[in-house]
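Input structure tokens:
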């Protein structure tokens, strides 16, 4: 039995440590630990709920707007504010832009190098790379001279000892399987995606003033004026600019991202049988298509239990609790109990070993993440959960068509989705579905302008004197990494309690009081590890979730600042 420690896991947001027992070249057990405490939930206590979104948004710099919208929705739910149609559409466009941007950055810049060997790309024949690229897509940047140029640029970097962002990986590891030409094509697209993401997120600059952390949210609506007769407002020029960015986005996603996912996946088909994890999936649903308290949702809500795609359960938010049996917190009701987020407590209490240490005591508490549970069961959330729910829902959109296309190209059935590769494929499909629909929401804004509906805020509930003296609200959003909820208790105009239960907390949380592992922990069991001192395969499955510990924990230990450490005991 070999004990592996990966700390910190890199190419993620925040600080994640994983310990695993490997026997016979396979992971037998794994523990996921967030090594960072933050405490935004505590910072919010006593504040004006109309300001909460500005603070909450700073939970993360990767999924930048998601805590703003969720906070706004929680407060609106508590005080009864109803945003007008323009605000709904503006929010849908901003959130979809976030998810599309986030997914592209994840695939190319955070995850691809687990599958693509940059050093091997140097051996590629540019002419053969061109043939390969043209066989999978009609994307124009595909000539022999283009790929020769990319190869020469990387070669020059390496010869000068300047691998830079490519410096720290397991190049030459036997689990890398792409031929040099596929590696070169993927590296070229890695570089193109850097440029793409900068152009695409301009949507946030257009509608929210900046990225990260757009500034145009407002309880009851949005602070983006809509007026075709004003140069200072969202007008027909903005509509045209949005349409252009969205069209460019659709072009890149359908002609580069999707073909790359299919091409890379074709070399790693065995990863459709690795990394499934707990097999239950939850989506809150999102992107309201109508106004009011119970809108139609573009991304459907539901739960898939135990990999059974023939049934879809409904989500009852009242069944959500957080446990802390293995988390560095105290509960007034006892550490073996779960608490509803409305009654949630954030009382940090570190009882782990004093750093530096070799191992966590996983029989006791071992993470700053809590363990969220639905009806006392762990749930995987994220693009795969949403895609499975939409697939089951017979979603009239393109989800089912696109998923079936991906499965056909892999020669696999739907059970292949319950896997590491399934997460990657689902994220790509979701990106395509969202970017295809963004133009429709932009058209919705233009239509409203044409009929002179310029409303952007319901200000009837702006004054705290219009609020109940004591009220509770919950807000939900499908963030890039999955189902996100904020719960707020407001009394006499101020926040009494604020709890965030975040996608990476659902996925990366530790075992609960009953010993049930969280999704990361379960998904690593059965993962092959060819070279324990270079646990590339562990990174593949972890990265397939797109971890974000900043969100998950919501004071960094400044005494322990190593860049990377992998130990085999
Ligand atoms: Ni910080 Fe986040 C997303 C949220 S996390 S990245 O997506 O909420 O899990
Ligand atoms: Mg929380």
């Amino acid at each position: 039995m070999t004990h592996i420690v990966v700390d910190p896991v890199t190419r993620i947001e925040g600080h994640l440590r994983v310990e695993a027992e490997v026997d016979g070249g396979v992971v037998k057990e794994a523990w996921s630990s967030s090594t960072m405490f933050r405490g935004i939930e505590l910072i919010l206590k006593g504040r004006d709920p109309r300001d909460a979104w500005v603070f909450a948004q700073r939970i993360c710099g990767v999924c930048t707007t998601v805590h703003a919208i969720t906070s706004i929705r929680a407060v609106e739910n508590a005080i009864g504010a109803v945003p007008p149609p323009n605000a709904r559409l503006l929010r849908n466009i901003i959130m979809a832009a976030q998810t599309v941007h986030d997914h592209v950055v994840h695939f190319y810049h955070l995850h691809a190098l687990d599958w693509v060997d940059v050093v091997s790309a140097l051996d590629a024949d540019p002419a053969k790379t061109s043939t390969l690229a043209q066989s999978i897509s009609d994307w124009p940047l595909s000539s022999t001279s283009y790929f020769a140029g990319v190869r020469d640029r990387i070669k020059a970097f390496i010869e000068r000892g300047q691998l830079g962002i490519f410096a720290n990986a397991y190049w030459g590891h036997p689990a890398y399987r792409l031929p040099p030409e596929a590696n070169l094509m993927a590296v070229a697209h890695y570089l193109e995606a850097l440029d793409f993401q900068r152009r695409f997120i301009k949507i946030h600059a257009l509608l929210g003033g900046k990225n990260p952390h757009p500034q145009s949210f407002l309880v009851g609506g949005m602070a983006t004026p809509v007026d075709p007769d004003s140069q200072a407002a969202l007008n027909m020029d903005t509509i045209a600019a949005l349409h252009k960015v969205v069209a460019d986005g659709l072009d890149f996603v359908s002609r580069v991202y999707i073909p790359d996912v299919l091409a890379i996946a074709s070399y790693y088909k065995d990863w459709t049988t690795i990394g499934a994890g707990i097999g239950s999936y939850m989506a809150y649903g999102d992107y309201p298509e109508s106004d009011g308290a119970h809108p139609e949702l573009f991304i459907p809500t539901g739960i898939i239990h135990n990999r059974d795609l023939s049934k879809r359960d409904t989500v009852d938010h009242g069944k959500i609790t957080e446990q802390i049996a293995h988390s560095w917190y105290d509960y007034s009701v006892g550490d073996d109990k779960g608490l509803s987020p409305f009654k949630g407590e954030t009382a940090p209490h570190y009882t782990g070993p004093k750093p530096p240490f070799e191992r966590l005591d996983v029989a006791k508490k071992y993470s700053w993440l809590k363990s969220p549970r639905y009806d006392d069961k762990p749930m995987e959330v994220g693009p795969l959960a949403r895609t499975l729910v939409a697939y089951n829902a017979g979603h009239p959109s393109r989800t089912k068509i696109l998923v079936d296309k991906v499965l056909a190209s892999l020669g696999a059935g739907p059970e292949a989705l319950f896997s590491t590769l399934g997460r990657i494929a689902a994220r790509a499909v979701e990106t395509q579905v969202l970017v295809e629909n963004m133009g429709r929401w932009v058209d919705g804004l233009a239509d409203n302008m044409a009929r002179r509906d310029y409303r952007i805020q319901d200000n009837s509930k702006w004054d705290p004197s219009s609020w109940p003296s004591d009220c509770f609200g919950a807000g939900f959003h499908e963030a890039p990494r999955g189902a996100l909820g904020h719960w707020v208790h407001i009394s006499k105009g101020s926040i009494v309690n604020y709890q965030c239960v975040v996608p990476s907390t659902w996925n990366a949380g530790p075992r609960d009081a009953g010993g049930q592992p969280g999704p990361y922990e379960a998904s690593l069991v059965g993962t092959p590890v060819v070279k324990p001192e270079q646990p590339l395969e562990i990174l593949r499955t972890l990265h397939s979730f797109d971890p974000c510990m900043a969100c998950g924990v919501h004071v960094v230990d400044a005494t322990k600042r190593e860049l990377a450490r992998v130990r085999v005991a």
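The longest helix spans residues 420-450. The radius of gyration is 23 Å.
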